[in-house]
Design goal:
Number of domains: 3
Order of helices and strands: EHEHEHEHEEHHHHEEEHEEEEHHHHHHEE
Helix content: 40-55%
Number of helices: 15
Strand order of the largest sheet: 2-1-3-4
Radius of gyration: 32 Å
Length: 507
């Protein structure tokens, strides 16, 4: 039987001891007896998935090893559970354990107790290092540093300096960005699906300049990426409404820089559409997709709907808009051999791992469609009161710099009011008086800004509204796709639960 000398080094650094030096310390403990050396270079001590370690454990089970010698305890393990399992095997095969620099005697209860205490601190050190690395990563992210990873299509890397530190940033590749502009413009049109875009690119022999084939998954990933958007206040408000953590203030969203999207430190959702607790940071590079186009595409991806002839099922023009008011997932159409024929059910109701019991009532498709058509007509009948607000949804005219500045200020006012309201609880009478006065001032400024924004955007709205109104008046003669287009323009989402219908309008 032999002594086993084990050495591990995760990263070669000046202040770390090399594998050769570790083995030299271990050889001293053998006093010249025969030994077998096991080494793992470039492996962490967080687990035991290491080839050298596994070879040593196999030799122990084969009865070849009588003693294991390491330079230091944390060289063999930094996990309490792994170490406990390892020591159990050592005891089973009567293998002694020696740390050449810590002098443990595992033959006594005190020695084993001290060994366990040391492994606890070794694991604590590993977790502390992980936390420092994570914190440093996100600190650099928030400053706009390039953090590695795949370079998005449409960009290449170029050197730059941020806060006197050399780093890299994205730079537009005109040949690739032109292809992306085409893809975004096509998907912003609800008549086109991802499949339609792929077919168009292939039919017109528009090749991916990086050699990869176009496919719907790749294009969908591009359409969700905020690295392309000219991030203005509308983009800021979109991410804010989705629960994302936005690092930069609203005033920085001027429509020049693009954004970085990070998964965040607490988010547990694996859904790509879920933006809650994601980190949004303004990037140092310039975006090239207008915010209106990017948002139109992003919202389509978010709702996971395909408003096309080939991809959206022709069973109801409300599909993709109707959500369960309890779990938030889509209501889908089911058919039955009854006089009603079709009805909506929650897509998660009855599925494995879901606690949703459904919308709480039977939602007949014909009844809901008739109800929604009446609701749309009623909404449009308020034309004179709604024409200003609808512009933001259907106007093709770009916003001027002055109007964008007003929208930024409007967002800042909302945030200031919210912050003041958060201080109401426990406030003294003097502080309450100040809060009331300040909120009144901000509210007055908010109303003035809202009126100015509405007035600036009235141009060309009336004709577009009349066009939609005419579509609704001739509803029975409209095609399925035209009905979907009207609904997509007017309605954001419909939530149904326990007989209650809550409509969130785009106007």
């Amino acid at each position: 039987m032999y002594d086993a000398l084990y050495a591990r080094q995760s990263i070669e650094k000046k202040d770390s001891i090399s594998v050769e030096s570790q083995l030299e310390y271990c050889r001293y403990e053998t006093h010249g007896e025969a030994c077998i050396e096991y080494m793992d270079r470039g492996f962490s001590g967080k687990d035991t998935n290491r080839p050298g370690f596994e070879n040593m454990m196999n030799d122990i089970r084969a009865g070849k090893i009588k003693r294991v010698i390491v330079y230091k305890l944390d060289r063999i393990s930094r996990s309490i559970l792994d170490f406990a399992n390892m020591m159990e095997i050592f005891q089973k095969y009567h293998v002694e354990f020696v740390s050449s620099t810590e002098k443990f005697d595992t033959s006594t209860p005190i020695g084993r107790a001290m060994l366990n205490i040391c492994i606890v601190f070794a694991q604590l050190e590993r977790e502390t290092i992980q936390k420092r690395v994570t914190d440093a990563y996100y600190a650099r992210c928030k400053r706009g540093f390039y953090m590695g990873g795949r370079i998005p299509y449409g960009y290449r890397l170029t050197n730059t300096v941020i806060d006197n530190i050399r780093t890299s940033m994205y730079e537009e590749v005109p040949e690739e960005s032109e292809q992306l502009k085409l893809i975004y413009s096509m998907y912003a049109d609800t008549d086109n699906s991802l499949g339609d875009i792929v077919r168009y690119l292939n039919e017109h022999q528009i090749k991916n300049l990086r050699g990869a084939n176009w496919n719907t998954a790749r294009i969908s990933e591009m359409l969700r990426n905020p690295a392309y958007v000219q991030a203005d206040i509308d983009v800021y408000q979109f991410f804010q409404s989705q629960g994302a953590n936005i690092y930069n203030p609203a005033s920085d969203f001027t429509g020049y820089n693009a954004c970085y999207l990070y998964k965040g430190t607490v988010s547990t959702s694996r859904k790509q559409s879920d933006l809650s607790d994601k980190e949004i940071v303004l990037a140092p590079h310039k975006g090239f997709i207008p915010s209106k186009t990017w948002l139109a595409c992003r919202i389509r991806c978010l709702n996971n709907r395909q408003s096309t002839k080939t991809c959206k099922p022709k069973n109801s023009w409300l599909v993709g808009k109707v959500k369960c008011g309890k779990c938030g997932y889509a209501l889908t159409i089911r058919k039955a051999k009854t006089k009603w024929g079709r009805y909506f059910v929650c897509s998660q109701s009855g599925s494995r791992g879901s606690n949703c019991t459904g919308a709480g009532c039977t939602v007949y498709a014909d009844v809901l469609e008739e109800y929604m058509l009446c609701a749309i007509k009623e909404r449009l009948s308020e034309f004179s009161a709604l024409k200003e607000s609808l512009l933001s949804c259907i106007s093709d005219a770009g916003e001027g710099h002055a109007n964008m500045t007003k929208k930024i200020r409007l967002t800042q006012i909302e945030e200031e009011i919210e912050e003041l309201l958060s201080k109401v609880s426990g406030a003294s009478s003097v502080l309450m008086k100040y809060i009331d006065e300040k909120i009144s001032e901000l509210d007055a400024e908010r109303k003035v800004l809202q009126e100015e924004i509405v007035t600036a955007n009235v141009t060309d709205t009336e004709g577009k509204l009349k066009q939609i109104t005419n579509h609704v008046k001739t509803w029975e003669t409209l095609s399925f796709e035209d009905r979907q287009a009207v609904v997509d323009t007017l309605i954001k989402v419909i939530h149904i639960a326990d007989g209650n219908i809550e409509i969130t309008w785009n106007i």
